[in-house]
Amino acid sequence: MAERQRVSPQMRTAEILDFLRNAPGVFLTNNERDLSQSDFMCRIMPQTTLKVAPYRDATGYFAFEIFGGATVHMDLMKKQVNPFEKLRLVRKAMPNTLIQGLCRGKNLFGYRPYPDNVVEMTVRLLSKYIDVWRMYDFLNYIPNLVVAANAVKEAGKLLMPCICFSTGSEHTDDYYAKKVEEVLSLLGENIILCIKNHSALGSPARIASLVCAIRKRFPELLLCYHGHNTDGNDLARLVAAVQEGVKIVEVSDHGYGGIYSQAPALTAIQNLNDYGFKTPGLSIPPILDASDILQRERRLYEAFTGPFHGFDPTVKRHKLPGGALSLAMEQAEKAGLLERTHDLLNEVIEVRKELGNIWVVTPGSQILWSTAMSNVLNGRYEKPSDDLKRLLLGRYGPFPFYDPPEWILKKVLESGRTDGKSWREILIEEGGLQDIADEDLKARRLLLESKLKRPATNEELCLYVQFPRDALDFIQFEERFGQTWLLPPEVWFHKGGFADGARISFADEAGKTHNIDLISTRKTADGVQTSFLVDYHFQSYKTKKGSE
Amino acid sequence: MFKKLLVANRGEIAIRIMRSAQELGIKTVAVYEETDKTSMHIMRADEAVCIGSGPRRDYLNIERIIQAAQRTHAEAIHPGYGFLAENPHFSKQCTEAGLVFVGPPPQVIIDMGSKVIARRVMTEAGIPSIPGTSVLPPGEEGQRIATGFAEKHRFPIMVKAVAGGGGRGIRTAQNMGELEKFVQIGRSEAQMAFGNGDVYLEKGLTNPRHIEVQVLADGHGNVIHLGTRNCSIQRRHQKMIEIAPAFLPEELTEEICQTAVRAARACNYLSAGTVEFLLDPNDNYYFLEVNTRIQVEHTVTEMITGIDIVREQLFVAAGSPLSVTQDDVTFRGAAIELRITAEDPKCNFMPDPGLIEIYQSPGGHGTRIDGAVYQGYEIPRYYDSMLSKLTVYGFTWKEAVDRLRRSLDSFLIAGVKTTIPYYKQIVTDPDFINMDFDTSYIETHPRLLDYQEEVPPLGKLASLVAEINAYGYNPYA
Q1: What are the residue ranges of CATH 3.30.1490.20 in chain B?
Q2: Which residue of A has its CA nearest to B358?
Q3: Chain B contact present for A301, CB below 8 A
Q4: Could you name the CATH architecture of B4-102?
Q5: A241 in helix, strand or coil?
Q6: Has domain B131-203 been given CATH number 3.30.1490.20?
């Protein structure tokens, strides 16, 4: 039998770790989740993912990240896709590749900490599909990862804790090496440690130094480098990381075109090979095939790219990662502040320094950005958000390096208080991490079922406890309209009406072709009457005015 | 053979009759009420006559139907089932107007239409009947007879309207109190429903099987049977599923069939008819009634014998002998027929008239559709809610059940609620598959109603496309 070249979902965690330790060369993870979030506002639809799935599966990636981060909530809100369903489809379409998901520790896929039993249930249910759990805490406060990490181990899945990386005088090799030590002592040694360079920071030399420092103290530790190509320099960084002993690097398909996401797989492979690193198990032709398709598909998502395209070397200063930056720019555009981008980004820099030089990653990036926006619009710290107050109260964890200055604590914590308490009293009485009581899941299930008027599945309950309103809206949407992910993305994002005679053609999950032919659109006094041939059967629908 | 036939009916049976007539080269005339003008039987006929504004009045108007026949020079009239089929005046007036009535002569209809006369005729011919009374006299006397009957035969006791039939006008009393009450209620109900308040009593059998024999008789002294049917699966005495043959022991089958032929002879039967029996758990059978019409479920008999019953009716009506003898009749395989109606089983089988948006019927080997609707047809609320009659044939019972399941699965009807999902439950029910059922089947299997409503998945998607089209953007994206 030929020697194993790549990992498979059938392997146990220990086998995968063993294989990686002993295999020569470097492995690649394709991160479409991050690409969709960074460059296309999470809008890549399952049909696109499924279209290229056979090629990606044949490529021989270490893993394919398709789940987590902001995409869970966005799947429900803007794509009307059940995140579990998406995983099921990807799992089926990519049987030979590990499926990877990203979670924000206790914050899961949201912006605030969840009760332990919600975290445990979520990890347990998702582990049916997810093989590799990448997880981070935006304050690098490792205890925030413990509950989710234990649930991953319990499910027998591969744990990949991250240390979030940034630059500046506090962000030393020594600091990060100590963080790694903390990770190992709290989460155990059977892990892959991920260096999460979400903001595309540091030179190749800086990354080399960091990896070297970690490897020096923990020579047996398997490392993954997750970077972004925002500044156009991630290819050099990932080569540098590999030269110092990183085993897995994250890449993207060149067919999507570089914006803020990962560096292109093909270039990374060429570089790595030229530098003398083998990429075992990887096959180049399917990478080309996938990108041939994606080059055409990406045009469907053009509307969801940010207002500015191209590389952004200034990310070194503002440190906003791709997903945050494009959303930030969208908000700025809506607020009419696009011409003040420079001021806004400068304010982000100021705010970050004032708020402890923390990592600009969710939910921290949202807090920093919205504070900066508010500061520009309303005056500095004049209208603090609840999330900012929570951050200053230490509800997410302690500030890693230093606390914000007293004037900010005073302004923020005392804002809106009617009890006349000083910020010091508030911090003493209310500060710090708080125990969150377990969710009464039985009661929540009853509530959900009373709204659905039918039994709820565990997966539905899981989505509901995390996103009560949006999950319920989604479930009701799905009951009404069915599996709309079957529709081609160009239909889902269609602008304007359809022409008479337009044909919508697609295959269902069983591969059978269906056609919806538009016959006519008739405007009536109280709405619009659309008539179709649905698989050659006449159907007519009335959409009432104002029924949206 | 006559050249033109008027079909005094609507829906699937009208179309079914026209098919046999057209095969014999007979031109067909449809009649319809104004409220039924989009009905499919009109499209299938060679000519059509509107006989009035309706609803449900003109299909019962003997005079207008005979006028329509005369105007179109039809020589014969087939009444189908329901409406005027078992009205002896219709048969009589047709004959008087010089038209051939495709069915038995008036006296047979009168005799067999009266439960009491029918019982007497059968008893005289030595055919076992369920113990019963004659018409109960009014007042004290009637109650006294009822009490005596109940004491002798014990409960349950059925209170039946003399003029009832097809499951209507029947109540089952479990004790003296109920008996007294039901006799009273039965009388007034029968008076209202049938214009005849006479009732009689019959000993009730516990969970009997409903077995019937198809007979054919011509004017040349030939009476033959086409074997048995099991019509036990009923809801409130209305048949839902019919099966042929009844799968009784061979000797019993032969005995029941010969009894049916004797019964037909005893009442001077002509044309196609059905002799119905109840079979108790000990295989004792009792005469129930004779139906003097073509029945809904005749298709199952056609499937297992290969004999076209309507075609034979037309031969008999034209004065010819039956085209087959008893020796020609052989039985092969099993057939199941069910009535797909626009009703909501979950809502107590309430009729659900409306627009048929999608209609796609199954086909293939052994699947027969006697349909009455088409895509785009608006089901009028005035008539019965039958959409289609599905009959399947299988070389064995198992094959028939498999084929029935497959046929139901490939039926696609959207726009109205139908009984299809309910039948789908039945075909996967182990008791049904094992042929373990009697007349209590529906009420003892309430779980058959535990099904999910199916909306064609593509219809849902299309409704979203309609919204995107109407708004000019996807409001959910």
Answers
A1: 131-203
A2: A537
A3: no
A4: 3-Layer(aba) Sandwich (3.40)
A5: helix
A6: yes
Continuous segment of H or E residues that includes residue B389: strand B386-394
User: Which residues of chain A fall below pLDDT 70?
Assistant: 1-3, 546-548
Question: For chain B, where do the domains classified as CATH 3.30.470.20 start and end?
Answer: 209-449
Contact B277, B269 (CB under 8 A): no
Whether the CB-CB separation of A216 and A222 falls below 8 Å is answered with no
Check A539 against B468: CB less than 8 A apart.
no
Q: How far is CA A402 from the centre of its chain?
A: 28
CATH T-level topology, domain A315-430: Cyclin A; domain 1 (1.10.472)
pLDDT of residue A548: 44
CATH class, B209-449 region: alpha beta
Residues of A in contact with B464 (CB under 8 A): 481, 484, 487
Mean pLDDT, residues B11-31:
97
Q: Are A287 and A266 in contact (CB under 8 A)?
A: yes
DSSP A60: T
A457 touches chain B (CB under 8 A): no
Indicate the residue of A480, A491, A527 with minimum beta-carbon distance to B460. A480
Q: Å from A484 to nearest chain B CA?
A: 6
In this predicted model, what pLDDT tens digit does every residue of B249-304 receive, in sequence order?
Answer: 999 999 999 999 999 999 999 999 999 999 988 899 999 999 999 999 999 999 99
CATH class of A24-299: alpha beta
pLDDT score, position A2: 55
* Of A312, A304, A378, the residue nearest A345 (C-alpha): A312
Edge-to-edge strand list for the sheet holding B238-244: B285-291, B271-279, B209-217, B223-235, B238-244, B334-341, B386-394, B367-371
Q: How far apart are CA A496 and CA A517, in angstroms?
A: 16
Cβ(A38)–Cβ(A365) below 8 Å: no
- What Cα–Cα distance (Å) separates residue B27 from each residue in A421, B36, B103, B316? 99, 21, 19, 18
Q: Where in chain B is the domain with CATH 3.40.50.20?
A: 4-102
A537 touches chain B (CB under 8 A): yes
Angle at the Cα of A504 (from B409 to A291), degrees rounded to 5?
110
ipTM value > 0.95: no
Exposure string (b/e) for A356-368, b if CB count within 10 Å is 16 or more?
Answer: bbbbbbbbbbbbb
From chain A residues 475-494, the ones with a CB under 8 A of any chain B CB are: 477, 480-484, 486-487, 491-494
> Which helix (H) or strand (E) segment is B388 a member of?
strand B386-394
Other C-beta atoms closer than 10 Å to the C-beta of B430 total 7
CB B204 within 8 A of CB B160: no
> What are the distances in angstroms from CA B21 to CA B103, B311, B314, B315, B388?
15, 7, 8, 10, 20
Contact at CB, A518 and B469, closer than 8 angstroms:
yes
